[in-house]
What does this fold into?
Amino acid sequence: MPDCIFCEIVHKRMQSDIVYEDPEVVAFHDINPQASVHILVVPRLHIESVQEVTTDQVELMGKMILVAQQIAKKTNVDEGGFRLVINNGVNGGQTVSHLHLHLLGGRRMTWPPG
Ligand code: 5GP
Ligand code: ZN
It folds into this structure.
């Protein structure tokens, strides 16, 4: 997908700090971290948003959660707790149109989010 930053990262045409990758999923540090642990988990496949997910991608969505679970353990936020966020569309605060799961940890989160 042209002009997609996360496709560029996934295909290693753009630098990022990758912490996990497999044939379907890539995870890397957010460039503008909002917590001491802020990692983005993305499918290699360019899926624009939650609204574009199809039934044949259900397993892929589940895999993203399992990858986040592993990274939470690896970054030692699993016991203290962490937050997973998927912003969707303009009102959801989505700024990059390539589906991504934010893994945020290392500080106490507040609710409701801003
Ligand atoms: P959204 O607002 O779409 O939910 O989240 C997009 C996230 O991508 C933001 O937290 C932003 O800091 C991050 N981001 C934007 N551009 C880049 C980039 O070039 N590299 C990395 N690693 N993160 C980025
Ligand atoms: Zn993309």
Remarks:
- The CA atoms of residues 21 and 33 lie 20 Å apart.
- Residues 5-105 form a domain with the HIT family, subunit A fold (CATH 3.30.428.10).
- The chain has a mean pLDDT of 97.
- The first strand starts at residue 18 and ends at 21.
